[in-house]
Write a structure and sequence with these properties.
The structure is a homodimer.
Chain A (H helix, E strand, L loop, with lengths): L3 H21 L13 E3 L5 E3 L2 E2 H8 L3 E5 H12 L10 E5 L6 H9 L3 E4 L2 H9 L7 E3 L6 H9 L3 E4 L4 H12 L3 E8 L10 E2 L4 H10 L4 E7 L9 H22 L5 E3 L10 E2 L2 H10 L14 H19 L5 E4 L3 H4 L3 E11 L6 E5 L12 E2 L2 E3 L6 E7 L8 E9 L6 E4 L19 E6 L2 E6 L4 H4 L10
Parallel strand pairs in A: 4-22, 5-6, 5-14, 6-7, 7-8, 8-9, 9-10, 9-11, 11-12, 12-14, 16-19
Antiparallel strand pairs in A: 1-2, 2-3, 4-15, 13-17, 15-16, 15-21, 18-21, 19-20, 22-23
């Protein structure tokens, strides 16, 4: 129960300090339309590669995910580039969990990248999309026996997550009469630990390889790591390469194991998204201070990342005099985040209840969960207008459903269309059917929008249910 | 990037202080099996009303939601009780969004409670389940025009969320040639504001009623509020009754409006769940201090809540000399939270990486999101064993997928079955299909488990997709 005195003190403080804090922190710099392949026509309508977004929404409904296939192609191609002066680059396995939309995955595969999967479902999906085992990497701490069986059976690369998995995987391989192609996930000092991988530092990673060597059902071909922490600079890539290749050299020296594949996982940051820091969020909530936009120039480009990784690995291999392994990467957000947007509409405006007007949207944490914790560029469709402060809330009837506590946007009216950028990472997999059906997904290609996932129907939402009055 | 010195200092501190902190805070008191209608047989196997939970899981797979129909019936009946000496009690409209499982909703409706819906989908579902307009309350800040049209058309009670909705609702009523039965959602000082309701204090609520009076398409019959803050004691109920009935008296006095229905929303706390406080969470994460179990004796029973509400309203009506309105309530968690559990399994154990062993479960934030922020009783199937400290993590391959940083549980082995209690509020609606299919739901009734929602299949997960190699 909030005390009325405390609330009143807080309100007064806010009045006193708020204006100054707001002025001091009006430092937001919007990202440009061009960053995302967008433009405006003479009426101010948002246009993606020739298509008016408003007309795409009229055809397919709001809210709506829109995939920009040209941007997707560019980013896939960037991962495929071979750094100047190098013989080979990296091999790319897209992290399915980031944005598991079959049409997107198909396009990624058609342009050469494979699949990184963490579950039986994802492995099944990769098979449905026509991939053979050599184009699939199986990861994760919680695979079912069936997921591991299927992976071994088709010859996928199975990255062992932790020591306790070794005998289980060996047993499954034996029951199939096949050898499992395996690597061990190792944790470096700078990266994620916890449920993921065996630490190099504690000798457990080394012990794991020694244990694997004793199992004739296992064919040790790889090493796997994943930084976890978002990669923004070449230094982090270089350190990762050193840690992993140094360890691979020790495996060769002490165990006679040659690592044919060094898999560096994902973690390359998406350039146009920034995780909010806690202080900025608090200032935004209390004093309406602007949140900070992402600064793309501070993030490694895909090309620079690939170059740093390949050069780092090759230098390290020369140093330790070991053969250069194939280099695998498993990008998620770096590949798809910026190539998909979420279009949504203002359902209603509500002036009371807070200093800012509430803009009630048809998209909230049900389909745009990441917006709570990350800065995403938002564009408003239509002619330029003066800016007004809004609180952006979603439809699901809880105060938790707040996408932004305070955001200045061109003056809104009910029905206005908003484009939330960088909706290609963790929007779709974290989507729920909380009171509202999940949106359709269209792919814009060659100047037309093709429906690739239809909107969820009410019937879909109860399709798995048994009840007396079945519709 | 964590500094190695800081980490080492933190580790030492943890060693020094951790033991003492742990001992000082080993204050957890488990809730009993009987609280949830459970027992154990001689082998230690968990039994729900005659059914071994392990055999239910063998038949229907893990993870699995299990509805205890007897407990559900008891709680519905509790809401229907008329307090001693009163002529009438409350009328109950279940909050669909809390646990939108058709078989559960059907059972609730068959025992007399109606539906509280916040979207077109939920309204459609209530109609599918055979409810007429008089048994439906339509709420929420983000209803589509179609949701409002349908509600008016069938004669549901339409609670207006904010002033700006009035003309929209009136317009839709006019287009149908019908009068809309409406109330206004008001915000009391102690309750939620923000996107919900017009505040009584600022006169906006009063102004809203004045505006509604001018619209001949609107038939003002109700007032609506929702505390939002969890109700644990009769004092909060009494204050709410006073605020709302006092305002209703003013409407009658100054506008001649008679409120026939006072709708007090939900917010009654579930007795066996407790929201973690931030300090306790931090102590748990850093020093493995036990988190505090819910204390059911500190929460109002349903009967006491109904009695406090009815007596509060009736006393206030006498005081203001206005007729006693019908009293509506819209329980969510108080009705279903404790009547449903989530059964899940240990996929694997991982000893490295933290002081506690990681127990990797087949259920994480993908289907048990509330466990991150709330204390839920967890029972382990099987014979009694010594207790060990675990970190409980889910399957979705992110450190965010941690259900408990430190929890002492009987020593686990892969395949062990866990029963997470109070899975009947916000588990199902917040469920995602993140890399893993959503579980089945069974209802235990008369000693047998009936499948009421089948497990999601891989085909279901891509049913809405269009791609070249459609399965």
């Amino acid at each position: 129960m909030p005390s009325p005195i405390a609330s009143s003190v807080r309100r007064s403080l806010r009045r006193l300090v708020g204006g100054a804090a707001r002025r001091a922190t009006r430092a937001r710099r919007d990202l440009s339309l061009e960053t995302f392949g967008l433009s405006r026509d003479d009426s101010g309508a948002l246009v993606l590669r020739g298509d008016q977004l408003a007309s795409v929404v009229r055809a397919h409904g709001s809210p709506l995910f829109v995939v920009d296939s040209a941007a997707l192609d560019e980013r896939i191609a960037a991962f495929a580039q071979v750094p100047r002066g190098c013989a080979k680059g990296v091999e790319c396995f897209y992290s399915y969990k980031t944005n598991p939309v079959p049409a997107v995955l198909e396009r990624i595969h058609a342009r050469g990248a494979g699949a990184e999967v963490i579950s039986e479902y994802e492995l099944w999906l990769a098979r449905q999309l026509g991939l053979g085992g050599e184009r699939i990497v199986s990861n994760g701490p919680a695979r079912s026996d069936e997921a591991i069986r299927m992976a071994i059976d088709i010859g996928a690369l199975v990255q062992v997550n932790h020591c306790e998995e070794i005998s289980r995987i060996a047993k499954i391989a034996r029951s199939l009469g096949k050898k499992a192609r395996v690597g061990m996930r190792v944790a470096t000092e700078a990266g994620w630990g916890g449920q993921f991988g065996e630490p190099i530092a504690s000798e457990r990673a080394f012990a794991a390889y020694r244990t694997m060597l004793l199992r004739s059902e296992l064919d040790i071909v790889a090493i796997h790591t994943h930084l976890g922490v978002g990669i923004h600079d070449a230094g982090a890539v270089d350190r990762l390469a050193r840690d992993v290749i140094g360890f691979a050299a020790r495996l060769r020296r002490e165990l006679g194991v040659t690592i044919a594949i060094a898999d560096f996982g994902g973690s390359l940051a998406a350039p146009t998204v920034a995780r909010h820091d806690a202080v900025a969020l608090r200032l935004n909530r209390t004093f309406s201070a602007d949140l900070h936009a992402a600064n793309p120039s501070r993030t490694l480009t895909i090309e620079a990342y690939v170059e740093a990784l390949v050069r780092g690995v090759e230098a390290c291999c020369r140093e330790h005099d070991i053969p250069r392994p194939r280099i695998f990467v498993e990008p998620g957000r770096a590949l798809t985040s910026s190539t998909q947007m979420l279009l949504c509409s203002v359902t209603s405006l509500k002036a009371s209840g807070a200093s800012a007007i509430h803009a009630i949207l048809d998209a909230g944490i049900n389909i745009a969960e990441p917006v709570r914790n990350e800065w995403h560029q938002i564009f408003v469709d239509g002619p330029a207008r003066d800016e007004v402060e809004y609180r952006l809330v979603g439809p699901i009837c809880t105060p938790m459903d707040t996408l932004a506590w305070s955001m200045r946007l061109p003056r809104l009216a009910p029905g206005d269309l908003l484009a939330i950028m960088d909706a290609g990472a963790y929007f779709v997999p974290f989507s729920t059917s909380f009171s509202f059906p999940q949106p359709a997904i269209v792919m814009v290609e060659d100047g037309s929008a093709r429906l690739v996932r239809r909107r969820e129907t009410f019937e879909d939402m109860v399709r798995r249910d048994t009840f007396t009055r079945k519709p």
